[in-house]
Amino acid sequence: MVRFVLTIFLFGFSVSIFAQQSENVWKTLGKLSYKKEYDELMGFKIDKPVFSDQVKALDGKEVTLKGYIIPVEGYKSHTEFIFSAFPYSMCFFCGGAGPETVMEVLALEPIKYSADAVTIKGILKLNDKDINRLMYKLVNVRLVKS
Predict the structure, then answer these.
(1) For residues 68 and 84, what is the distance between their CA atoms, to the nearest angstrom?
(2) Dist. CA 48–CA 34, nearest whole Å
(3) Cα dihedral across residues 74, 77, 82, 85: positive or negative
(4) Cα(30)–Cα(85) distance, rounded to whole angstroms?
(5) pLDDT exceeds 90 at position 138
(6) Could you give the CA distance from residue 36 to residue 90 in angstroms, rounded to a whole number?
(7) What 8-state DSSP symbol labels residue 77?
(8) What is the distance between the terminal CA atoms of the chain, rounded to a whole angstrom?
């Protein structure tokens, strides 16, 4: 009986830590600034992201994130989508948050759309060069929890 109670406690503790780590990744991704830089192709100054050392440390690392699949026009498949820290009504594309709260996702297998939060895991890639893409991209993504 003691072993059972201890197992349940440890499981609950690890789930709690897992949820905190996921939330902390979104908070870390928000640690950036912007600098104005002239873009030759666009012909005007743009805001270029400047990633903090904490964000740079996540580049190329596997991270786990809890968030929301954002339905967008031109949705290619369920392996390519936009992922947000916030539900659609509060998402960056709806004016409720900053661009650091969304990312492009390339999943290994299709992930079914849900209006509820899902947890995914993948390799984080930073983008401060291509203004036609989001600044964060998660590749080799797997669904952890729906």
Answers:
(1) 5
(2) 5
(3) positive
(4) 11
(5) yes
(6) 26
(7) B
(8) 31
- Please determine, for residue 7, whether its predicted confidence score (pLDDT) is greater than 50: no
Evaluate if pTM is beyond 0.70. Answer: yes
Q: Which residue has the tokens 């109670």?
A: 5
pLDDT category, 78, cuts 50, 70, 90? confident
Residue with tokens 């498949």: 77
Could you tell me if 135 and 99 are in contact, meaning their C-beta atoms sit under 8 angstroms apart? yes
CATH code for the domain of 20: 2.40.50
Q: Supply φ then ψ for residue 98, to 5 degrees.
A: -90, 170
Residue 52 lies in a domain: no
Domain that holds residue 120: 2-31+59-145
